[in-house]
Amino acid sequence: MTNRPAPTLPTPAERRRLREAASLSQAALAARMSVTSTTIHSWETGRATPRGRALEAYASFLTTTADRPGPAGKPVRTSRPQAGTTVKGGEDKARGEVGEKAGAPPEPARAEASRPRPARPEPPRPSPRPPRPTGATPREAFDALYASCAGVLVRQTYLLTGRHTVAVESVERAFQLAWARWPEVAVDRDPAGWVRAAAHEYALSPWHRMRAAHRRPATPGAVLPPPRGRADHDLMDALLSLAPRHRRTLLLYDGVGLDLPETAAETEATTRAAAHRVLSARAAVAERVPALADPAALHRRLDALSPLEPATEEQGALIRTGGERRVRRWTRSAVVLTAVIAGATAFCVSVAPDHYVRPPAAGEAITGVPPHAGPGPLSEEDRSLREKLREHPAAGPERVRPLPR
Prior knowledge:
Radius of gyration: 44 Å
Organism: Streptomyces albidoflavus
Pfam family, one: HTH_31
Strand content: under 5%
InterPro entries: Cro/C1-type_HTH, HTH-type_reg/antitoxin, Lambda_DNA-bd_dom_sf, RNA_pol_sigma_r2, RNA_pol_sigma_r3/r4-like, WH-like_DNA-bd_sf
Number of strands: 0
Order of helices and strands: HHHHHHHHHHHHHHHHH
Structural class: mainly alpha
GO biological process, one term: DNA-templated transcription initiation
Protein name: HTH cro/C1-type domain-containing protein
Shape: rod-shaped
Helix content: 55-70%
């Protein structure tokens, strides 16, 4: 059996330009492709690549948009396909177990994609558009990153924990860590994914169980505006009943829209293990909420379950300055602690003995030596001598009186 060559895609920037030329938003294109808006965003940023039927439908949409006449009557033609965007014909084994991420495209789009097209001459390539400015300084770039993905991260983290306070705190800590390591984050292939992984790790940390407020089970709707119906409560209960690893894998795969290899890499698991986690999580959710047995319905419900909180660059500046103050406070505390330890060490060194002092031996009783004897009785000679000394003038008052002449 001969495999058809896989369709090729233009560069990520050209994909976004073609979507904007068709006057479609990411949400509208996602609804047409039966995927999430996050998936469309990942395709347009080059972080992910569509596969299977989703690739055919997406390539058909881009080709149709490129052939559509522009304002000047000329076809809007894409640039030469980017090297490395050709996808293999065979799917990953674990990907096949989980199933296609996106649903089947509509029948007209599938037929149009499979219909052979006549060869046409390649029009002149348009001049490349200047890159969109992302900020002249690292602070502006950080604030723009916060404004673009902080609200989405709060919603995702809320689905992981069920607590709005933990979700907000996790996202703030993740962005503070990103600012502390900004030289590393700025050159990362996916800065938003770097922050997302840090936020998820902090949100699922077992140390949160030590808090007194977290020893009680979370009630969906108690920390956010209540869901619109009973079905949303049931879905939140089903998510919180999953194991943390299964919950995170399901959120990344069905909520965020990552591919299975990317989901496995972010959760630090093998592709097969990630596939089994997705299957187990879907089965558990479908058992409690039968209406969500379809993965496409689960995608839509996960997007609509938690409200999206808008974020601004001013909030990003506050998070950045708060992180800087926190770093300075910890640095000063470390300096003070080091000084205290150094002072205590110097004091101990100064008062400690610098040589060996031999301890005195214990006392012992001495035997065999006669005791000291007092004076004995006077003899006759001793008494006569004593009387003589007493009668001598030197012993009387004459010794201090002058004799008269």
